[in-house]
Specification:
- By secondary structure, the chain is an alpha/beta fold.
- The protein folds into two domains: 185 residues, Rossmann fold, CATH 3.40.50.2000; 175 residues, Glycogen Phosphorylase B (Rossmann fold, 3-Layer(aba) Sandwich), CATH 3.40.50.
- It is 38% helix and 17% strand.
- Helix 12 packs across helix 13.
- The longest helix has 17 residues.
Amino acid sequence: MRIVHVADSFAPDIGGIERQVEALAMAQRAQGHDVTVITAVADPAELDLHVVRAKPGRWLTVCFPWRNWRAVHGVLEAGPIDVIHAHFSVVSPLATYVTRLASRRRIPIAATVHSIWWKVTLGTRLSAVPFGFGPMRAAWSGVSEVAAHHVRRTLPRAGVVSVVPNLIDVGWWRPAPDFRQTDPDQIRIVLVGRLKKRKHVDEFLDVLGQVRSRLAAAGLRRGVRVSIVGSGPRRDDLQQQIDRLGLTDWVSLLGHRNSEEIRALLHESDLFIAASRQESFGIAAFEARSAGVPVIGYQGNGLVEFISDGTDGRLVDGADGMVDTLYELAADPAELDRLRKYAVATPPVISAESALSDVYRLYDRARQQHGLPALAEPVGTEAVTAR
């Protein structure tokens, strides 16, 4: 079938949406589908995909996406399209523009929201005003039940909003059978994410400072090694905070690492920290869980889709809960080892195959809105790692 993905952000940009759209498009291409990606990113990237890019001038495209009407119309008029899959963040002008055009042409549209539309409901609605009022005829979904809930709140007339998880090749991340044992003398912690304010890495560093003080007060000399992977505008501020809190012997800012390097680091780690409170899904956390590493994160975000509190990780209510949990696991290596053994032995509840099946069910709902027959789901789906 002919599938067109539209995403305002795409490779060479680095982020969750970019990686997931690429992974899904590559998986569908591997299945033999005709796949095109339309994006607002003008910069080229070496991908084995047909990518239609916007004109140079990113902010002009954000403000005036219709300036790319010729390229968009070229895709829409190149032949019958079985489904357009529009990928939305908080504000996605190009995805909104293409969705409006496709709605008028009666092309089936599947829409996936990759962000939490929380406290931004008005902004999300206003971003669609330049394209006309009225509903966009699409089959809507979110990458988690939390994300889907906020879509329902923002678009109360959207109808059914399903869950379409991110596509991760779980098997690629799994550790070898002779996976190492927990070291009772040192706890190894890893955090992966962009060094931006919304990722709350600074709050996690404050948590570490409190954990260190509690361990010292209890007379526990536990070795702690924290590796923070990622780059971003807050790197210098975070390093200064590490120095100020006296955590230089605990915490290392490693900068950017590729997927192979992250996987190797995870296989050497005891815990993964999901520091953000606003994860619509939590791709890095899911990769850690796939690598056999228990995850500590916050209640109320997308981690609840694949982390069971007390089984393969811990889900806490706030910073105090994070302090208590980290202190408990640092003080009790046996409990940490129990979580690790379960995470190593048991794959996560979401697989790449089940995620692809959810995508094709979403496509069927989009086609049914136009009275079109359901698509035949490919047999023996082949996943492509989102890296």
